[in-house]
Amino acid sequence: MKKKQNNFETLPAKQPKNRQSKKEQLFKAFIYAFTIIVALVLLVLVVFVIVKSTTIFAKDGFFSFIFGSTWNPASNGKGQYGIGMIIATTLVMLIIAMIFAVPLTLFSTLFISEYLSRRNQKIVMGIIKVLAGVPSVVFGLFAREQIGALFRMFGAPSNDNLMVASFTMAFMAIPTMISLSYNAFQAVPEVYRFSSLGLGVSKEKTTFSIVRKSATPKIITAVIMGMSRVIGETMAIMMIAGNATGGFNTDSGLAGFLFSSIRTLAGTIGIEMQENAGTDHQSALFAIGLVLFILVFIINISILVVSNLETAKRKRLVSREEKNIAKSVLITSSNTKAYTNYELLTLVKKGTANKWSKNLYSTFTMFLMWSSTIVVIGFTFWLLGVVAFKGLIGFQHVDAFASINGESGIFAALLTTILLIFSTLIFGIPLALAAAIYLAEFSRKNSLLTKIFRFSINLLASTPSIVFGIFGLSVFIVMLGLPFSVLAASMTMAIVILPMLISNFEDALTSVPESYKEAGAALGMSKTKILLKIVLPNSAEAIITGIILAMAKIIGESAPVYLTLGTAIRMPTEGFLSSGATLTTGIYKLASEAGPGKGESIAYLMSLMTIVLVFALNTTSSRISTSISKINKQAWYLVIKERFVDFKNYSFKTAFKNKINYISKVFQLAISKIKYSTIKTNFINYINRKKEIREIKKGGEE
User: Fold this and answer.
1) Sequence-ordered list of residues with C-beta below 8 angstroms from that of 401, at least 6 positions apart, any chain
2) 3-state secondary structure 421-448
3) DSSP-assigned letter for residue 628
4) Which of 225, 239, 242, 332 minimizes the number of CB atoms within 10 Å of its CB?
């Protein structure tokens, strides 16, 4: 009796998990360790600021600190620390700045996106990116002299006041707002525009009623990011706001109010942190940093809420549109009506706007868009023109490259800047790249920890740099005992650029097509080799671009450097332990102390050098991206070639020879089983079947 076969014997065997080599395990551990370090750094920064703020909260109370109107630091516990008036002046400056910035951003971006050709769009957006790369201290130097003089013509008592600060902050926020708004308008589907124009709606009405309305949620996000930029600015505000703590001048009417000397939250930290009056005063400054952090947190939560509302709105619109389509189909199928020519003509005439009002609307909106674009571009050329003209005049002071007022000169500041860039990238790139690899390749996308980590990165990306500055001053210099030096400044700046680098690196890694990774896996490559030989080479373009942009940010930052490196312009003879001033902090020092004359001329010369350096980095970034993209076209071919070269001595030749031998044996076996008798029998049966079929057909015909 035949034994019954067990069904379980037919099931495929369970495949064992691929065992990772020690190198792969070490690489993964390296990535996780560096990611944990990044997370701990971000966590420690927040916790440290909170802990340092508790002293003043325990003494005066949180609400007394927030709503108190007197700020009068003093030693021996006799100071008064209320930031209510400082918060009010900060918010008023923010409101006035947004009154300037929002209309200019909206109208100019609509004109750039909807009315300019692709070539002209690139040119104008390139000009705006140049404005975005101007360091804040250069804005402050320009605003104190040029914008301050402009408002003095309107009755301002000095060059440092609320209106000068608000107007300057508006144009510092506009480049960021225009870039985000431009992306929002470009993302609006073309079918929206064509459908509106096809219905006879004018170009201007389409632009404002269709395109602008479709991009409204993202425009709100752009405005919120601009607000964050205004709230967190430090160095320019210290140069142009006046820095008085008494609040607004209400004795001279509206003019006195608008031209009041004010102080902002971030400006207060920058002015008083290095020379605080004791524990209470220092704690109060950290508490101001905590307030700034809370404001940034609220801003980021607002962006998330706006994004979620936009997603929910889109789902509702899609659902409503599907219902309307179904309803219209039912109505059309059950109750169709043909209009006469007279009725159609009447509907068109009634539904079409009056020609006069349409032309008036188009003319008015075109004027707003043209004038706003001209104002933004004109301001950019105004600033760059003044800096270039006065900077070139500053070349007459050739001795300034070697010495300025008994200190070292511009060349020393340039060397210190280069040393700071180099040391900051040494700390920042490994941590940022490891965190980006973790987020792109190893993390679970929907994990709560991953979402919290991403939100923390976005939160710290918009945190005012002065908060990082007070953290670096307290931890690296006070607690760890490091001197004011390039080392302390670079460790602080590494934390500043970490969020930016992580975001750029992650975007670079995720931009590599999945098909490349799948092809690498099909060749038997491990995940680590896929990452090192496919993902990283193909994302090198964006990674290098991110590094160069980070270099430009390091050059332009001044508040953290001001608090951790020092302000004296001197040669970095002690290497990483040297103190001194970078180009930007040197500009602040000269603008604050030297006044008009030779000092101001040298400050403009340093400003010109800084702008040229930032512009050169941005241009180099784009050119390197172009050249690397050409090289990357051959990257995949090189990986395949390398893979086959590794196996040509055994895997390719031996496997091919074995395959031929196997096919030959199978063929011989098949031939041996074919017999002559079998062929003869099959042929006779075929003839008999054909004969029988013919006879049946013949009988049917008879």
Assistant:
1) 409, 410, 411
2) HHHHHHHHHHHHHHHHHHHHHHCCCCCH
3) H
4) 332
Q: What is the pLDDT of residue 379?
A: 95
Residue for token digits 């920064």?
Answer: 45
Quote the distance between the C-alpha of residue 233 and its chain's center: 18
The CA distances from residue 454 to 183, 435, 655, in Å, are: 22, 10, 48
Retrieve residue 427's tokens: 């700390």
Contact 89, 248 (CB under 8 A): yes
Residue from 322, 394, 349, 292 nearest 600 by CA: 394
For residue 80, list its beta bridge partners: 72
DSSP state of 242: B
Decide: 228 and 299 in contact? Cβ < 8 Å.
yes
CB neighbours (10 Å) of residue 531?
23
Reading the block at residue 612, the tokens are 């040229």
CB-based contacts of 359: which residues, under 8 Å, 6+ apart? none
Nearest-angstrom CA–CA distance, 680 and 686: 10
For residue 319, give every residue at least 6 positions away whose Cβ sits within 8 Å of its Cβ, in sequence order, or none.
none
pTM score, two decimals?
0.76
Please state, in angstroms and as integers, the Cα–Cα distance from residue 543 to each residue in 45, 445, 546, following that order: 26, 22, 5
DSSP state of 338: P
Q: Between the ranges 80-94, 589-603, 656-670, where is the mean pLDDT highest? A: 80-94
**CB within 8 Å of 546: residues ≥ 6 apart:** 500, 501, 504, 505, 508
The answer, yes or no, to whether residue 447 has pLDDT greater than 80, is yes
* Lookup: tokens for 97: 């700045």
Q: Which two tokens stand for residue 15?
A: 């495949």
Residue 503 has pLDDT above 60, yes or no: yes
Could you give the CA distance from residue 450 to residue 442 in angstroms, rounded to a whole number? 10
Q: Which residues contact 99 (CB under 8 A, 6 or more apart)?
A: none
Q: Which amino acid, 589?
A: K
pLDDT at 4: 47
Spatial CB neighbours of 119, under 8 Å, sequence gap ≥ 6: none
Give the orientation angle of helix 598-632 with respect to helix 410-437, to 10 degrees: 40
Neighbours of 501 (CB within 10 A): 25
The type of residue at 475 is V
In 10 A of CB 421, how many CB atoms? 20
β-partners of residue 403 are 408
Gap between the Cα atoms of 155 and 668, Å rounded: 106
Question: Closest by alpha carbon to 440, among 429, 450, 448, 425?
Answer: 450
d(CA 479, CA 60): 26
H or E, element range at 45: helix 22-60
Structure tokens at 41: 């750094």
Q: Please give the Cα distance from 174 to 98 (Å, whole number).
A: 9
